[in-house]
Amino acid sequence: MSRPRILDLFCCSGGAGVGYARAGFDVVGxxxxxxPRYPLPFVQADALDVLRDVDxxxxxxxxHTSPPCQAKCSLTKGTNAAMAERYxxxxxxxxxxxxxxxxxxxxxxxxxxxxxVLCGEMFGLGVLRHRRFELAxxxxxxxxxxxxxxxxxxxxxxxxxxxxxxxxxxxGGGKGSASEIQEAMGITWTDVHEELxxxxxxxxxxWIGGRLMKHLTAAETG
Length: 222
Ligand SMILES: C[S@@+](CC[C@H](N)C(=O)[O-])C[C@H]1O[C@@H](n2cnc3c(N)ncnc32)[C@H](O)[C@@H]1O
Hints:
Helix content is 30%, strand content 17%. By secondary structure, it is an alpha/beta fold. The chain has a single domain, classed as Rossmann fold. Helix 1 (15-22) links the parallel strand 1 (5-9) and strand 2. Helix 1 crosses helix 8. S-adenosylmethionine binds at residues 10-16, 30-33, 46-48, 66, 68-69, 198-200.
């Protein structure tokens, strides 16, 4: 198959998009905000409008979605729970639209079914960053989780912990600086802290993209 096309919805600055490009996909990113550091073709639009345009979706071999997740993140539970009200959880809207389109899809979100769960240690990264991925309209086998090498560096409950991983969210308390997060996640094309803290390490979607590529090739050859 020549390079298949994948739509990267809610793309931010392209942690996910770059992984799919490395796996051999031509990628088009969509975000509601301008994302000038997205290193691949980009369209500024509301991803929900795009998901409702089934004729447009079907111009792609696959669709990845990372709907905003703050409302369900552990970071917005407990003392930060009030922050969750500022965010809308788009998973319940995104999932049915993606299944209905019939295109092979991926949903990355804390509410997503855990068809695949990836962790930085599986790729030798300097972050743990567990992320769950729901596969819509295709399947692959589940990878095994691997043992962590140590703890996440930083202050928690008045105690400092050292360790091989950095916290790639928030600021202070020993959490990673922008340059530490870049290095730990393997991202060079943005040094904007907000974009880095939102990103999926490209190694994750390179892995998923490899599996997706096999699925598409098998479907094509029947
Ligand atoms: C969690 S981030 C995505 C991170 C990205 N997958 C990566 O790996 O770098 C979510 C993104 O969704 C965007 N967003 C929020 N609502 C949107 C909408 N209705 N349409 C398109 N993008 C939206 C935000 O601007 C943000 O960039």
